User: Which sequence fits this backbone?
């Protein structure tokens, strides 16, 4: 079987870019920093002031927290209840411990597990987890919400950003290459001197006491162009963007013994996109609801879909010509070979990378 939809980039034979890595856009603070948490009762009782974002529904818990995981048999046996969200359809095959249901918009676990599906640690039926995000900092990373409700707790005072957060991290080459405060005067801190060894992911520059970044990552910064990337835009007024992606699955099986049809499922794996990017995987969008599997006739084509969503708090961009990128793999898996893709003429044809390009317009405002 073959999935073909998005034309993809071609690797460049000049090596991999190994620059330091930007974590906070210059002129902003950490935009997903928790300003107010839900307190001990797990209920978000604080309404976000304009400029901050609501991470938990007022009167409920933190939205879309992991709730149920796949059990050892790797079959999804539980259907979501209440407003909980089904991440992998009932009857679908899942990896052991993969999250199959989240708590939905109200943040309250409302689903009773069936079979060997199990709750995520700390989750109990009808009880929102304590001290989870209620309000998070918005586009500028600066807290705007001052007065908490109920037992909610303010973690960042109004007008401030979370201090000493990573602005630039060490890249794959293991050498610090970025000088603090290279965009504007500020109190960013040079954690590791330029030219010194560092571990990948270690902070090279942090945001200092004021929490506002005044540093841009330095080092090699190559870019290749894609023919047809999926482009999304977020900003302070639209803190999330979604796109339904459509795939074609072809049955190109060869030989006199080939059956008249094969059942398949769609699987999204790996990649660099944030958790929760891929939802609503549907092997047969013509049938109401989410279908775990669908047939495709010999020599025929079937359609399948999934929804990709990116949220503002996961995106850092510093140049409108250089959007945030992340990717994941999508594969068509024959029911007869599940969980492996079939090994016919070319098993690479069963898998296609999907690349998302996202521009956070709020990061590009002049300051």
Assistant:
């Amino acid at each position: 079987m073959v999935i073909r939809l998005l034309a993809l980039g071609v690797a460049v034979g000049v090596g991999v870019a190994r620059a330091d890595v930007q974590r906070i856009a210059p002129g902003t603070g950490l935009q997903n920093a928790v300003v107010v948490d839900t307190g001990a009762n797990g209920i978000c009782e604080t309404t976000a002031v304009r400029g901050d974002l609501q991470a938990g529904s007022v009167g409920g818990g933190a939205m879309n927290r992991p709730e149920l995981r796949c059990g050892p048999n790797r079959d999804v046996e539980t259907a979501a209840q209440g407003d909980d969200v089904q991440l992998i359809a009932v009857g679908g095959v899942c990896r052991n411990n993969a999250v199959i249901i989240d708590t939905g918009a109200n943040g309250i676990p409302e689903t009773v597990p069936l079979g060997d599906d199990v709750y995520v640690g700390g989750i109990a039926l009808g009880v929102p987890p304590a001290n989870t995000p209620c309000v998070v900092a918005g586009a500028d990373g600066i807290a705007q919400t001052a007065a908490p409700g109920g037992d909610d707790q303010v973690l960042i005072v109004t007008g401030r950003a979370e201090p000493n957060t990573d602005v630039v991290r060490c890249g794959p080459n293991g050498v610090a290459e970025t000088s603090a405060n290279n965009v504007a005067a500020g109190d960013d801190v040079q954690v590791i001197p330029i030219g010194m060894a560092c571990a990948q992911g270690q902070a090279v520059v942090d945001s200092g006491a004021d929490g506002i970044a005044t540093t841009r990552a330095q080092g090699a910064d190559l870019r290749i162009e894609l023919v047809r990337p999926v482009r999304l835009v977020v900003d302070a007024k639209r803190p999330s963007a979604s796109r339904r992606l459509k795939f074609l699955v072809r049955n190109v099986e060869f030989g006199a013994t080939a059956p008249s049809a094969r059942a398949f499922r769609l699987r999204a794996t790996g990649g660099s996109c944030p958790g929760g990017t891929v939802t609503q995987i549907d092997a047969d969008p013509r049938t109401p609801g989410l279908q775990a599997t669908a047939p495709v006739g010999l020599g025929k084509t079937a359609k399948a879909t999934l929804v990709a969503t990116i949220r503002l708090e996961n995106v850092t961009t510093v140049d409108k010509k250089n959007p945030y990128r992340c990717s994941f793999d999508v594969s068509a898996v024959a029911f007869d070979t599940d969980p492996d893709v079939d090994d016919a003429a070319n098993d690479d044809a069963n898998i296609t990378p999907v690349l998302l390009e996202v521009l956070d317009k709020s990061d590009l405002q002049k300051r």
User: Anything to note?
Assistant: Residues 248 and 303 are 5 Å apart (CA to CA). Residues 229-364 form a domain with the Immunoglobulin-like fold (CATH 2.60.40.2310). Confidence is low (pLDDT under 50) at residues 1-17.
